[in-house]
Amino acid sequence: MTKLLIVESPAKSKTISKYLGSGYTVKSSVGHIRDLPKSASKKANAVEIENDFKPNYEIIAGKEKIISELQTASKKADEVLLAMDPDREGEAIAWHISEILKENFANSKSQIPNHKKIKRVSFNEITEEAVQNAIKHPRGIDQNLRKAQEARRVLDRLFGYGLSGLIWKKLRYGLSAGRVQSPALRILMERERLIRAFIPEEFWVITADVKTKAGQMFSLLCSEEPRDKKRVEKILKIGTAAEWKITELKETETKRSPRAPFITSTLQQTASSRFGFSPSQTMMHAQRLYEAGYITYMRTDSVTLSVTARKQTLAVITKEYGKEYLCPRVFKTKSKTAQEAHEAIRPSNLNVKTAGATPEQQKLYELIYNRTLTSQMADAKLLKTKIIARVGERIQKDDDKDFPYFFINGSRLLFDGWLKADPASRSDDIELPEVKENDILDLLELKTEAKETQPPTRYSEASLIKELESRGLGRPSTYAAITRTLYDRGYVEKINKALHPTDTGDAVSSFLEKHFENYISDNFTAKMENELDDIAEGKNTYVRTLSDFYGPFTDAVKAKESIEKISNLGPADKKYKCPKCGGKMVYKLGKTGKFISCAKFPDCEGALTIEGKEIEGPKETGEKCPDCKDGKLVIREGRFGKFISCSNYPKCKYIKNDPEEEKKKMTGVRCPVCKTGEMMEKKGRFGIFYACSNYPKCRNTIKAKPTGKICDYPREEKGGQPCGALMMEGTKTIPDRCSDKSCPNHNPHKLIK
């Protein structure tokens, strides 16, 4: 009996193949095979609203060959096992493949009934035991999970279609809105407005350098940070004229308990804080570790460990650290909206101390390993000490009862407990001098330092995810996508780990907050997430959820169709005058962000950059366009400097570059797609990339400089023939690699040698 097992990842298929016998064939779908249409011409028919919101899926471009291979392999198999990830997305992929294969089986001569031939298997970790156990207990497609994913997909599309179209008309072409992306942007903008409105206040930090009679010197901090200069002078006057005495010595034994094992959000937050990984990077490295069989499934909001995993964890702790470090714990998931009953993220085998094909994967594995161990270890015990000193003679005086005290805090680790396994979480001991109450101190110097209060800090990726989770916005599978979308849309920039909304992000959020406040509110977004959870649990239906949303939503969008187009974003600073007519100016939103335009536009075309530099309009060169023949070539100023293009843009997209500059950017590598162009350096929104010189007729692009070599990796879908794509330069950790992302040689460091 032959069996075909299908997974969604080539790396996952390699790992699983090691655990199966000769009677199995393992194939990969390489992710989703069908999706809702994205092109503008097909969007109108993507969802049949009147037919109970029936989605009309289409084959994803480039997946035709993969589907053909799966159909061919399924005809030869007696049984098909769908082993996608154990979540809604995995269930959806499994369902799409089963639907396509069922059509294929209808024409097959197989004697096995179709509904029995296709089965679903799932596992939370890719180990031999877990895979074999799953195969022994196959099931059908979980239609509730599948419908929940479909509802999310359709809901997000309907939300995006409705609001994005309106934003294009009323604000600027090419902008977009998203059901969870827009609330996240609103949260960032709310913080940004607090920062802009913040007015700093001056305050003083007062420190006293003192010495004990035994000659030990240390510094004390004033308990008050005065805002008034006169108050500072009073403290200095009294402090320098009186005797200093230790009036209190507080010693408190405290404990630090370990945190629960990782869930998706806490893994992303900790990896961001420790290593500077973005949420997308963290999930990419975690995905590779999972597919290689090193960790359990990484999209989860459960903090529980299986009985077997806990036993293994306790055994490792006893062996490595001793019984005194043991403290078995059972953590409970706090989130009311916790999804499918997965385990926490943990190593598949705790006897494996290091794992991962790259330094980044190894760092992440060590983080997961240590967190799992420490969750079952004893509390750390600390002795916290606080020394309080006062100006001795002033203690009894009524008029100085509000006189501040001076203090210093210290701590000493009595028992390291779980910190022994995770030293990165340990803070340094602060040793204090040995003193007693009523000891007299000699004042060496009383110092002041003027400072200003600081505005609220901007969100980092880690703190934004924590905030979204606390508000019930998004789910484990969506956090990385939310931040990535904000970057890709140009709504947010990351500067030194802080997330800064761009001018475009500001304009979009302000528009949505003004006109669609309810639909980007925490309450609405969290409510929709809960309704999707209810579908997954069988407590709600797909049609009811979408019907309840769509009617009021479309009415709200239609109600805003008549509002005027937002042609400007408010008056510019009075210091800016139109460079052409000297009149008033206003802020406007262009493709590259804010700029300053004459208020009389289009009667006057005067414009300035946001820094106040004049933007010159297109100037004719005296040449005709060689492409459309009737246009004239003009000099324009773009995001990356001046360039020459056709006056008929956007109908004609001809661009003429400086021949000398053009020559410098050429790589000498012929384009393998059109065979006539040459790969050359280009600059885009995300930095330097390489594209065919025949653009836009040929749209071949790669993200790194081509080496001139062709990838000779044998591709399975090409019958073992060489890949044929360009090789491109690698990085410090990755050698030269294939430019085709679907080729295994795109990640040569992960290939089995």
Task: Describe, in plain words, how this protein is organized in 3D.
- There is one protein chain.
- The chain is of the alpha+beta class and 753 residues long.
- The protein is built from 19 helices and 30 strands.
- Strands 9-10-13-12-11-14 form a six-stranded antiparallel beta barrel. The protein has a four-stranded parallel beta sheet with strand order 2-1-7-8, with helices on both faces.
- Strand 9 (202-211) and strand 10 (217-222) form a beta hairpin.
Question: Topology, pairings included?
Answer:
Elements: E1 3-7, H1 10-17, E2 24-28, E3 34-35, H2 40-43, E4 47-48, E5 54-55, E6 58-59, H3 64-76, E7 79-82, H4 88-105, H5 114-117, E8 118-120, H6 128-136, H7 143-170, H8 181-197, E9 202-211, E10 217-222, H9 229-241, E11 244-256, H10 264-275, H11 279-291, H12 307-321, H13 359-374, E12 380-391, E13 406-415, E14 440-452, H14 461-470, H15 479-488, E15 492-495, E16 498-501, H16 503-515, H17 522-536, H18 542-559, E17 585-590, E18 593-598, E19 607-608, E20 619-624, E21 632-638, E22 641-646, E23 655-656, H19 659-665, E24 666-670, E25 678-684, E26 687-692, E27 701-702, E28 706-710, E29 726-728, E30 737-738
Parallel strand pairs: 1-2, 1-7, 7-8
Antiparallel strand pairs: 3-6, 4-5, 9-10, 9-14, 10-13, 11-12, 11-14, 12-13, 15-16, 17-18, 18-19, 20-21, 21-22, 22-23, 24-25, 25-26, 26-27, 28-29, 29-30
Helix pairs in contact: 3-4, 4-7, 7-17, 7-18, 8-16, 10-14, 11-13
